[in-house]
Amino acid sequence: MPKQTCKALILIAFWLWLPCAGVSAEEDEVEDEDETPWLDQGHRYVSTRADDLATWMDSFFGVRRVDAEAAYSTLRLRPSLEWSEQYGWDTGLSLRGKVNLPNLDERVSLLFSDEDSGSLGDELLRDQQNQSDDVALQVVGREGTHDRIDFRLGFSSGINPELAARYRYQTPLSEQVSARFRQELLYRTDDRFGTDTRFDIDVAVSADRLLQWYNRARWDEKRDGFGWNTGVTVNQRLSNNRVIGVYGTLNGRTQPRHLTQAYGMGMRYRQNLNRKWLFLEVQPGYFWRRDVLEDERRGSAEIVLRLEAVFTGDIEEAFSR
Q: What are the entry keywords (predicted)?
């Protein structure tokens, strides 16, 4: 924990040093109920209701993809307290986000990810399935109306470098439905070549209710077969400061034998705490896991309590329409 705390303080201090830093005192107040905060400014094409609601939900929950593609710098500091019937109590502290490098037209940025490797249900959720590098340099090669290409050089385990090229395509299928596809090609010195494929569907059930179906397949030369996960979430916006949702998810591998390693269900409640940059999140769930086919599958009740402080270089642009 002391090592993680030092890393967090160093990165926050570095971010505050940048010219874009600074938050005015007026931004400490919670957003009024009739305003619409948290709209990603990178969302540039003519959007549908499904696009707008999905972007709002993903931004409110702090999905990594949104931070990585946003036009503003963001760091998220997350202390957490976790309990599992199977693993007992645990605490965590993570720091992740993106810092745009000055004078480079917002096309070059540093990505930070200092995530705890917990054993609770978070790793089954889509926004936690992004196995980010500890530090990475990201360069946007092309950004069009519906698509985006970027390149990344990162370091994840010790000094093992990773090269990645990623293509993302997003388009509305109707006023209520939108689709997003992402293909990533990777090269790591430890795992050699690999691929990461994602396909998501967002459905605006109503003005404040969103259904999301997400799918992911991963492959690398070091392991046999594909790793996969799929799941469904339904999030309900109670107000501009509160969201509650339920989810069901499962993951596994295709080789050496078809195996569903884990599946489970749960709910998430998230709200602002008097400051629109400070969040509280409660996430109870129940999961069944086994690592190999011979193991007996064990059920485990779990709960995560999490605070999140969001530091951003342009809080008004990041949080409001």
A: Signal
Contact 67, 14 (CB under 8 A): no
Nearest to 256, CA basis, from 294, 199, 296: 294
**Residue indicated by tokens 């540093």:** 110
Rounded Cα–Cα distance for residues 67 and 110 (Å): 11
Taking the CA of residue 193 as centre, how many other CA atoms within 13 Å lie in the half-sphere pointing to its CB?
A: 1
Find out whether 154 and 136 touch, Cβ atoms under 8 Å: yes
Return the domain boundaries, the chain: 2-319
Diameter of the chain by CA atoms?
58
Tokens of 238: 């109670």
Burial 260-288 (b: 16+ CB within 10 A, else e): ebbbbbbebebbbeeebbebebebebebe
Q: Which of 299, 304, 262 is nearest to 284 (CA)?
A: 304
Task: Give the DSSP H or E segment for 11.
Answer: helix 2-17
Alpha-carbon distance of 318 to 33, in angstroms, equals: 17
What CA–CA distance (Å, rounded) separates 152 from 196? 14
Fold of 2-319: Porin (2.40.160)
Tokens (6 digits) for 139: 């360069």
Q: Residue 250 phi/psi, 5° resolution? A: -150, 155
Name the pTM for this structure. 0.76
Over residues 143-155, the pLDDT tens digits come to 888 999 999 998 7
